Queue: 2 jobs
Job 1
Amino acid sequence: MSRSARPSLRGVRTAERGEARLIHETKLRVRYSETDAQGIVNNANYLSYFEVGRVEWLRAAGLSYKELERQGYGFVVAEVSAFYKKPAFFDDELTLSTEIVESKRASFSFGYRLFRNGEVIATGSTRHACVELATGKPRRVPEELGARVFGGQP
Amino acid sequence: MSRSARPSLRGVRTAERGEARLIHETKLRVRYSETDAQGIVNNANYLSYFEVGRVEWLRAAGLSYKELERQGYGFVVAEVSAFYKKPAFFDDELTLSTEIVESKRASFSFGYRLFRNGEVIATGSTRHACVELATGKPRRVPEELGARVFGGQP
Amino acid sequence: MSRSARPSLRGVRTAERGEARLIHETKLRVRYSETDAQGIVNNANYLSYFEVGRVEWLRAAGLSYKELERQGYGFVVAEVSAFYKKPAFFDDELTLSTEIVESKRASFSFGYRLFRNGEVIATGSTRHACVELATGKPRRVPEELGARVFGGQP
Amino acid sequence: MSRSARPSLRGVRTAERGEARLIHETKLRVRYSETDAQGIVNNANYLSYFEVGRVEWLRAAGLSYKELERQGYGFVVAEVSAFYKKPAFFDDELTLSTEIVESKRASFSFGYRLFRNGEVIATGSTRHACVELATGKPRRVPEELGARVFGGQP
């Protein structure tokens, strides 16, 4: 497995949808503070990993979540799920694979797979709504974002 | 809504299963460190709230998770889901309602509803397997625990 | 030790300064997510405890930090120290004692003592500056706050 | 500033002690979950950064904290201090510089400086005692560790 911390980005043409799908891989090293008294990564911290994954996915897609916020938009988390197959331990080197699994007018979903040495140890997904930060009101995903990220169909 | 920090415990006889169902309510005050730059509670922290909820549920049922660990057993999280309906803010007083929603031989599930002023702002569930801590191997839920908590049918 | 979750507030007249000193006690129950793989509360989480302590201190003094923020002010942390004497474990019931230990024109300090069964297991302090949230610029502590909390001498 | 995620390690001969001093630099990207409602990194999370810094310092020195734990030893945190000069924001790229600033028979201290674009935004230190994990009793730093890390004088 490559040890680079630089984002790797693979454009995969999927037969079903006839469009390029970006799958982004982020490297994570388990921090001591992320473990709990069971000696393993606490279940809540996987959601923080997923959050890192989607920020890095956006960056790899040429978008900065920080810039999006500066423009007055944000993504709120509407739904999460996680499946824990094997525990993760302090100092483990994990690879988080992130991709968009669904996109609609005002919401979209990311899917995540967490690997250790090529083996999937957890999976998950998050669904997000785009909101105007000032009001918290749902908004269509900004056009530029939609076009660049979702191929124009959000 | 009662403001007591003492656990409240309601035994509800459910028609479908003909057995008592314990629903436990825990009060939580949102800490500043639990918020993020969106000004709301970060999505990952709901899983820590759920964790508090099930520890308190067990205590209300006469069981100490700490004692369970001393006997060499633990519950590992196999699966979580959460649905975020309204954001929670710093200093909000929340009520977390926890109950067992499913129990099987070697796994069981908790359901959660998070309220603010009587309104549900989030729901979720977690599925757990019972393991022997020394080996990490799945084990049947210890009999005493099963009998007291799940009415003998885990 | 009293088990009430309601804030207890003691006014102590200190000889040196001839003024009432508020000491506020907050109860905390150690959450599983606050422990780490050493089986004890991770050192970073004590700072979150301290944060809870000063929010509750302010509330006991008749001030809401949330309200202060609504008025456009906030306290930034300039400095922290913590001394760990005994480890804290999952499910421990702790009492956090918080008081103002110094107040100046534009900054003030809280002192903390964390107890388990009447024994001090950690101490610490934090120094804060008052800032205008919009600009991040240092500001004098708002007069009303100063008067009520620090006896008019901040 | 180099952007490599690989540890950089500089051996600096210090006049006062006539020995090589290892200064290790770790890159950190601020996660969304590390911010709070002030829009900046919550003060407690700096201690988790410091923890990452000393784990990476040890690795750069040829030691694995994980391996140390396997041998039955651990470092407990006895004392921390942190000084916050400038806030850190979501997505900031930070460089954490870690070094040993003191070593004694049974305890030693790390010093930390956190940089953004070459500017120090925070500093801190932590003091640690070496303990036998099974008993929690203080122990001399294991000889091999002492020799490799502290030049034989712990």
Note: The longest helix of chain A spans residues 45-60.
Job 2
Amino acid sequence: MDFAATKALFHLPKGVIYLDGNSLGPLPKAAAARIARAVGDEWGEMLITGWNMAGWMAQPRALGDRIGRLVGAPPGYTVIGDTLSVKVYQALAAALALRPGRKVILSDTGNFPSDLYMAEGLIEGFGRGHVLKTVDPEEVATQIGEDVAVLMLTEVDYRTGRMHDMARLTARAHAAGALTVWDLAHSAGAIPVDLTGAKADFAVGCTYKYLNAGPGAPAFIYVAPEHADTVRPALSGWLGHDAPFAFEPHYRPGTGIERMRVGTPPVLQMAALEAALDIWDGVDMSALRARSIELTELFIAEVDAACPSLTLNSPRDPALRGSQVALRHPEAYAVMQALIARGVIGDFRAPDNLRFGFTPLYIGAAEVRRAVRILADILDNRLWDVTAYKTRATVT
Amino acid sequence: MDFAATKALFHLPKGVIYLDGNSLGPLPKAAAARIARAVGDEWGEMLITGWNMAGWMAQPRALGDRIGRLVGAPPGYTVIGDTLSVKVYQALAAALALRPGRKVILSDTGNFPSDLYMAEGLIEGFGRGHVLKTVDPEEVATQIGEDVAVLMLTEVDYRTGRMHDMARLTARAHAAGALTVWDLAHSAGAIPVDLTGAKADFAVGCTYKYLNAGPGAPAFIYVAPEHADTVRPALSGWLGHDAPFAFEPHYRPGTGIERMRVGTPPVLQMAALEAALDIWDGVDMSALRARSIELTELFIAEVDAACPSLTLNSPRDPALRGSQVALRHPEAYAVMQALIARGVIGDFRAPDNLRFGFTPLYIGAAEVRRAVRILADILDNRLWDVTAYKTRATVT
């Protein structure tokens, strides 16, 4: 892998070291022209005929398959659309319906809150004595009892980067008669994922983090081949119907993954996703993983040496860590503001985490070293101790 | 209203008479630059800080209020996001939860199929003996019994343009103790709507038809002030949480309409919507309605005179008709293909409808007359009777 070549494919603002690609990836240079084409040549010139002529209607499946390759899904079982929260709901509802006698959704405290919130909303509406049980990440394996309908986990913890063993936990879940819903928000494009090998039942993820498809880019959903033709999609919209344009009075699910589509796909966001995936099509995930580990190892070593006031809040063993590193500091919010003011962009995650994402496609060792030098300078000289940095905005 | 001035604000392909703005509105010229700014100056330069600096996070509410003005909603009770099908589900689930003792969702056969499908999916999951009852549009008023929890209707029929009397049916529903969910897909930007005056409980709509926000543009949802702080949103995502970035373990709904937000909003599509609404901000809906009626009346009169083989499938009384006209023909699909080949774009709706939308912002009397001349020529000379026109593509 030539990571200098991939770096040249992104627009990175001058003077910025961007360690927040795990929150929002940067702009692929080709995306601007691709989006402009979707606007001018497609929407502008083709108007309604763009659904066929520009292929808009077929894109959710085609884009889904390109993501599928990155996460070990066979072609035909991944589709994009909606937001990740909506796809979590759909996967969870579908999985619950396949285990009607069981009442427990098992998750962990390291799951992204929106996944837990969606489960709470689902239970409040659908629930017939269902409960959401959240345990510590380390306890998940021992808590998968015969009452568990669905094990719902995010593979890589959004704060700490701690990784679950997808294959092992899925095997445990299956042994107990439960199904699995894996959230790949911090996995897709960050680490090698093998949904097929792990025998995952459902998976969901977003495309605006490591995949670089832009703010508000659509989510994706995977349904394993053995479930794809039997699940009910819960959100049974017309584009998941077997014959959307027949306008039949009753819902009939489409073939396989088609049924997980809901409404009209976001054409402009799909154009950005398409340009982003053009870069990913050439990426070997094991080479990317090797480089990612080099970068996180380097970052941790440099922080250990230069920033004694910080505590590592990620696994020290790289085999247990995704492509991000969290560091704790009592004034993490202010420290991150000071960093951003110096051009090092990471993010703050409550209550006291500085979070940094490492994205080999456009971040190298030089940026890692420079970021730590600036971080050390801010800590050594208490440059974060300024009222302006301590005043929290609504969104970080 | 100066409709020549508004027409100049749109890009309309040369040689095309576009009578399908009720399916996908054309490109506002300013949208291309606005989207390019969102891509280059916002995503490209601001990266993650765009959520605050470019105001992305606040846009769903701001854009919602600008749509709200067009449909008679007070500021603060409309928000954009997701697709229309998802918003139908959310409104319906929220309404059902407010009427726990009642089991009937009443709708009509003129509703858009996806609304009915979403209701079916909701019942299949949430249902505790709930049923979806669909009656003929003319029978709705007499079918609102004491068992009805929610009256769910699309105000303007997507095929025929037949309008329901929102105020009268809402009053009937309330008298029977039921709530209302109004789909404004073919109303917003087409006819004056007064959600407040009609005392509508919930309303949803899309922005890619008459509002011209582009393919896959987000939907909107309105919740009446008396419900906004009590409803449960069903799809309880993190951006509807009272404190999304506190990452609390349990869901707490945000204030009022905020809770109907779910996941990350589509920033590129919002940029297009913003540009589209810049045009609408100057539009007086009663002037637009007067012009719309002139155009549909002219179209029907010309068709009556020139196309004896067509049957009007819309109300002849303009007071009962939205901003579209449907005409029946046994070979409607082939006729529409022939029309499109001649530059007149409308659409086909099964089983035998030619559907034409009339959008005063960029369509005038000259286009209407010319479209009918071409239609008459095609019918008089059986120009539709060509194999290529009869072969149906997947999407029309």
Note: Residues 243 and 259 of chain A are 11 Å apart (CA to CA).
